[in-house]
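Weekly structure sync, notes
Attendees: PL (lead), two postdocs, one rotation student
Agenda item 3: pending single-chain targets
PL asked that the sequence for the first pending target be pasted directly into the notes so everyone works from the same version. It is reproduced below exactly as submitted, 416 residues in total.
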Amino acid sequence: MAAKKGDKVVLAYSGGLDTSVILPWLKETYGYEVVAFAAELGQGDELKGIQKKALATGAVRCVVKDLRKEFVEEYLWPMLKSGAVYENGYLLGTSIARPLIAKHQVEVAHQTGATAVSHGATGKGNDQVRFELTFMALDPSLKIIAPWKDPNFTLTSREAAVEYAKKHKIPIEQTRKKIYSRDRNLWHISHEGADLEDPWNEPQDPLFVMSRPVSKTPNRPEYVEIGFEQGVPVKLGGRAVGGVRLIETLNEIGGRHGVGQADLVENRLVGMKSRGVYETPGGTILTTAHRALEMLTLERETMHYKQQIALKYAELVYYGQWFCPLREALDAFVNVTQETVTGTVRLKLFKGQATLAGTRSPKSLYNPKLASFTMGQEYNSTDATGFIRLFGLPMKAAGIVGRQGSKAASTKRKKR
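Predicted structure, written out during the meeting:
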């Protein structure tokens, strides 16, 4: 249905291939006045000249917001504290950014009087869910336009989008020979498509952007010390540093050593498996350090239950359910667990790995005298005798019954 004269749509605009062609398509197909919205999330030079490009492509306005501080403090730190990792390898760099972008998209819609919002996510991906769930949660009255699911949208492949861009003289970086779908922010960069669609193909060295190929990393290790307060990283090398700068610095250091490269075939929310290669150097260092500090400061039952919470938290982030009551409730639990997660972690970075090299904390539950092999007054080993008897009583009872049953069965076989 064509838009009414003067109707505006706010498009989540990155200046990449998909949104570059979607912007003029929205205008040509439905007559919308397009407001392009771009979020600065630490994607390097990708936003350079983006306002000029959006206006030249047909946008009536281009809004650019620097959201890096909010991204770190209100999204990345809560996720880091939760321990969320999707399917044992994905540190959720794209997933965690989408709700933030969509939130501000809704705000821009309110500020400009737009009646609709739009995104460039495909009908096969997870991002369509993340954008649209956020729109629904924050303003259900806004019309959602998803071109890749629109029957009038004929640019159903990246090759077709490239041709459309050439025809309309839209500058793009992608070519038919090398068409990677990439998403970059302060936390990571993802790579999908092209030769990566075959899981048998090894990622080639030129693919990597934020980190060096492991074969080209230094032959000497480098150490980093990260200080945490209640689960939040606040110091690097003993000096206080803001979250944005801390991650940027760790990206540089970790990237130099090839830390944080992950090659995954993951289960998308929409049903199929997909292959992606991720670079998360700083995020990998912080996740490893945070986990190590929790090992030192959380008592057993809390730590084990929090591991279960982390799995659910990762699903909520991956599925785009950031603005749901369950995530807020889980945050309340996580924040209580983090009250003792204060201390310093030292990591060794070498040949693609970030390995633990030391932890210390004023809240440490580690008692050297208790942990020592030397018996002392702190631990009465005879207490373990009764404990093991009671702890193993159910297994003993089952074993007795099982043994009696085996004897009875053996007796029957002999009588036969």
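Discussion points:
- The CA atoms of residues 34 and 59 lie 5 Å apart.
- The mean pLDDT is 93.
Action: rotation student to compare against the earlier draft before next sync.
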